[in-house]
Amino acid sequence: MTSRFTELVVDCRDPERLAAFWCEVLDFKVIDRSVGKVEIGSWVPTVEEVRARQMPPTLVFIRVPEGKSVKKNRLHLDVSPIDGSTGDEVSRLLGLGATLTDVGQGPDRTWEVMADPEGNEFCVLRSLAPQD
Fold first, then answer.
1. Interacting residues of 109 by C-beta distance below 8 A, sequence separation 6+
2. Is the pLDDT of residue 17 over 90?
3. DSSP, res 117
4. Distance between CA 63 and CA 13 in Å, rounded?
5. Which residues lie across from 32 on neighbouring strands?
6. Can you give the pLDDT at residue 28?
7. Which residue in 25, 46, 35, 37 sits closest to 89, CA to CA?
8. DSSP 3-state assignment of 28?
9. Phi and psi angles of residue 51, each rounded to the nearest 5 degrees, phi first
10. What DSSP designation does 131 have?
11. Which CATH architecture group holds 7-63?
C-alpha cells in the first residue's frame, strides 16, 4: 500500500491573493477554485496519472479566520531560480510583494529567507541557471 504527495495546503486570509502571488513565483496556473479555496499547479492532476507515478504536488490555499500565529513556520517551501541569479530572483519576488525576513538563519548562508504577502516563510536557494 502506498500514498502519493498530491497537495500542500496553506491556510490564509486571502486565497485569491496568495494564489496569484505563488502563480507568479512558480509559473503555475489556477486549476480549481471554489468559495474560500484556490488550487494552483503546473499540471491538471488526473487520478490515472497520480496512480501511475509521483507527480509534482499542487498548492491549495484555504481561507481561515485567524492570521499566522508563530514567528517561524515548521514547514516551508524552497525555490530555486532557473534562468537568473539568486539576487535577481530575490529582486523579482520583492516586486511581487514578498519581503526579506529573519528567522534566525544567521549571516553565513547561501540562500535568502523571504515571506509571502501573508508572512509565510520560504527560501530562495542557489540558482539553477546555466553557468557561462
1. none
2. yes
3. T
4. 5
5. 39
6. 97
7. 25
8. coil
9. -65, -35
10. P
11. 2-Layer Sandwich (3.30)
User: How far, in Å, CA of 76 to CA of 132, rounded?
Assistant: 31
Burial of 16 per CB tally in 10 Å (0-12, 13-18, 19+): middle
User: Per-residue DSSP letters for 38-104?
Assistant: EEEESS---HHHHHHS--PPEEEEEE-SS---SSS-SS-EEE--SSS-HHHHHHHHHHHT-EE--SS
- In the block, cell 517561524 appears at 72
Question: Which tens digits make up the pLDDT trace of 113-130?
Answer: 999 999 999 999 999 998
- The residue ranking higher by pLDDT, 47 or 9, is 9
User: How many whole angstroms separate alpha carbon 36 and alpha carbon 27?
Assistant: 22
Cα–Cα distance, 73 to 66 (Å, whole number): 15
Which residue is associated with the grid cell 507515478?
53
Q: Are 110 and 80 in contact (CB under 8 A)?
A: no
Q: Where does the chain hold its CATH 3.30.720 domain(s)?
A: 7-63
- Give the alpha-carbon dihedral of 8, 15, 85, 57, to 10 degrees: 20
Residue for cell digits 471554489? Answer: 34
